[in-house]
Write a structure and sequence with these properties.
The protein is α/β, with parallel strands linked by helices. It contains 16 helices and 13 strands. The longest helix has 31 residues. Bound molecules: nicotinamide-adenine-dinucleotide.
């Protein structure tokens, strides 16, 4: 920090920055999910005192025994955190001891596809009685531009705290990519925007303790919008390549050959890959946070809507390909035995949130298919808000595969035996371009 900037900072800010730099500070992370759990472990590894807080008491008790319920966070990391003093708790009163509080709770959509901030507001309401002067609050949950200033700040100030003077507020979007072997919490650059310059200075000091690169932006709204641009960028490009897939299919071309050839261009082209539809907590949901907010400004988010429409149509398109392939073999969907390979929303993870596999299975079940699934990461079909299947994952064997009328590859986990699958399936519908065009019995979808 430059001397000039340090001189202009309120005393509480300077004191907090020094506490982070000397590692004397304590940080509470609220919401121990895919984002919060690896983050709190990372902060503990960086030498800070840490508290992991979640309203799910069962989860807290499980974690407090040195276990992990996420395949992407090894239990050793949790156990190491505990050994370094990490405290797991459901008691909000604990945050009084914290110098910084980081909020990583869900931000889903309502059934009408509008922002559902109930978890963010609920968390803040629970926090308010325990907040005090000399603390930093950072929101990491993905949300629309203006949430920090319009939803959080007025509530904090109504409690008598002065943001930028004796209390500090930042937005720092989460960029976790569960299952990514190359990038983990510490080496993914962290964007941070403050409510005031002093807030930003305090926020940067916090994240610099545990993350290699902190990228400063001019406001919390820019930080919120940055995350949305990243996710809209993916949603739109995946929508585009899914549309190209449908066109290439009609024209009798292999879209994957086209993408491979285009990707040889050394500039100006970034390959995206088509699939059975969008999944996960972020890409299918976050862009609609912006759509909702943009309406307030009289702006329509046409790219977002169009990409959403195309991507949401993919499960139906895949089912159309299955129906056509079965028809070629003189069979209807009704009464056909079908095995879905991979129900997680992306490869090598156990997360099924918004997975297109569930949408495909719903459509097939409605048409009378006899369904089963195999997923080495998801032993039992979990309870989902919109879908219910009373199924357990079946082990893959020559006998299981050859007993099916149709095998559908939805998520191409590395743990699948792809040779066995191709050798034993009478009809294999491949939604991931895993098999070369023209492979016997394989239909691309
Ligand atoms: N999962 C990802 O890969 C990812 C990536 C980027 C951004 N995000 C964003 O990060 C945020 C969190 O996502 P996640 O995937 O970690 O969610 P998650 O569902 O895995 O975890 C959220 C946790 O918050 C807890 N919780 C809910 N309300 C609470 C409350 N009032 N007090 C305390 N705990 C509470 C839940 O019990 C749960 O353990 C979302 O805004 C999401 O969009 C997620």
């Amino acid at each position: 920090m430059s001397n000039r900037l340090a001189q202009n900072l309120p005393g509480e800010a300077t004191r907090l920055i020094q506490r982070f730099q000397s590692r004397a500070a304590c940080v509470a992370v609220i919401g121990l999910g895919y984002v919060g759990l690896p983050l709190v472990c990372r902060l503990a590894e960086a030498g800070l005192r840490t508290i992991g807080l979640d309203i799910d008491r069962q989860k807290v008790a499980f974690l407090a025994q040195g276990n992990s319920y996420l395949s992407t966070v090894p239990r050793e990391r949790v156990a190491n955190g505990l050994a370094k003093g990490l405290v797991m708790s459901s008691d909000y009163a604990r945050v009084r001891d914290a110098d910084a509080i980081i909020v990583c709770v869900p931000t889903p959509l309502t059934p009408a596809r509008e922002p559902d901030l109930q978890y963010v507001i609920g968390t803040l309401q629970s926090l308010l009685p325990h907040l005090r002067k000399g603390q930093l609050l950072s929101l990491e949950s993905t949300t629309y531009p203006g949430t920090t200033e319009e939803v959080l700040r007025p509530r904090i100030e109504a409690a008598g705290l002065r943001v930028g003077h004796d209390f500090f507020l930042v937005f720092s979007p989460e960029r976790e990519d569960p299952g990514n072997a190359q990038y983990a919490t510490h080496n993914i650059p962290k964007v941070c925007g403050g409510s005031t310059p002093a807030c930003l200075a305090v926020g940067v000091a916090l994240y610099s303790t545990a993350i290699d690169t902190v990228v400063q932006v001019s406001s919390t709204r820019v930080a919120e919008m940055t995350k949305l641009l990243e996710n809209v960028h993916r949603a739109v490009n995946i929508g585009l390549v899914n549309e190209m897939k449908v066109i290439a299919d009609r024209m009798g071309m292999d879209i994957h050959e086209v993408i491979r050839a285009a990707a040889t261009k050394p500039f100006g082209f970034v390959p995206y890959y088509p699939g059975p539809g969008l999944g996960g907590h972020c890409i299918p949901i976050d862009p609609f946070y912006l759509t909702w907010k943009a309406r307030e400004y009289g702006v329509n988010t046409r790219f977002i809507e169009l990409a959403g429409e195309i991507n949401r149509a993919m499960p139906e398109w895949v089912v159309g390909k299955i129906a056509a392939a079965l028809n070629e073999r003189g069979k209807p969907i009704k009464g056909s035995r079908m095995l879905v390979l991979g129900i997680a929303y992306k490869k090598n993870v156990d997360d099924v949130r918004e997975s297109p596999a569930a949408a495909i299975m719903e459509l097939l079940r409605a048409r009378g298919a006899l369904l089963s699934y195999s997923d080495p990461h998801v032993p039992r079909f979990p309870k989902m808000r919109e879908h219910h299947f009373d199924l357990e994952s079946v082990a893959l064997s020559a006998a299981t595969l050859s007993a099916q009328d149709c095998v559908i590859l939805v998520t191409d986990h590395d743990r699948f035996d792809f040779e066995l699958i191709a050798a034993q399936s009478r009809l294999l519908v491949d939604t991931r371009g895993r098999y070369a065009a023209g492979t016997r019995n394989v239909v691309p979808a």
